[in-house]
Specification:
The chain has one domain: Alpha-Beta Complex (Peptide Deformylase). 24% of the residues lie in helices and 34% in strands. The protein is built from 3 helices and 8 strands.
Length: 161
């Protein structure tokens, strides 16, 4: 078990386009496992490779539903529709929250840890989490999409609703 250090903003790697994964081996499998354990330990629902200092298009997402852990390697959004606005935070921006508007539905093509291509469709909260992580892989931070910042007292009010 390895809990990795989460890169905090400002860090150059958080704002750069990540490289595509070309090697699907035991190192990738271990990295995915370590990323997942790091995300869970940090109480997150997603973690992208640049957030642990790795310049590759890799993300893990788990919103705690029946799908469990989703590994996304070289993901591409191929379809999106609708709109949702909700509060987001980011493990690379501790104690910073804001409302962000994103598509309600996404269809994503990605690869699994063995390099096999798959399609995943997601709505609502899962779609939001996936889009947030894919943004990281392209150097796009949620702070560039915030409509309104929320302070921690306001956030507690939202959580009780």
């Amino acid at each position: 078990m390895a809990i990795l250090t989460i890169v905090k903003h400002p860090a150059e790697i958080l704002e750069k386009e990540c490289k595509q994964v070309t090697q699907f081996d035991k190192n990738l499998k271990q990295l995915l496992k370590d990323m997942y354990e790091t995300m869970v330990a940090a109480d997150g629902v997603g973690l992208a490779a640049p957030q642990i200092g790795v310049d590759q298009q890799i993300a893990v997402v788990d919103i705690g539903d029946e799908r469990g852990r989703i590994n996304l390697i070289n993901p591409i959004i191929i379809e999106k529709s609708g709109e949702q606005t909700d509060i987001e935070g980011c493990l690379s921006f501790p104690r910073l929250y804001g409302t962000v508007s994103r598509p309600y539905y996404v269809k994503v093509q990605a690869q699994n840890m063995k390099g096999k291509t798959f399609i995943i469709e997601a709505e609502d909260y899962l779609a939001r989490a996936i889009q947030h992580e894919i943004d990281h892989l392209h150097g796009v931070l949620f702070t560039s999409k915030v409509l309104k910042y929320i302070d921690e007292e306001e956030l507690e009010g939202y959580e009780e609703q």
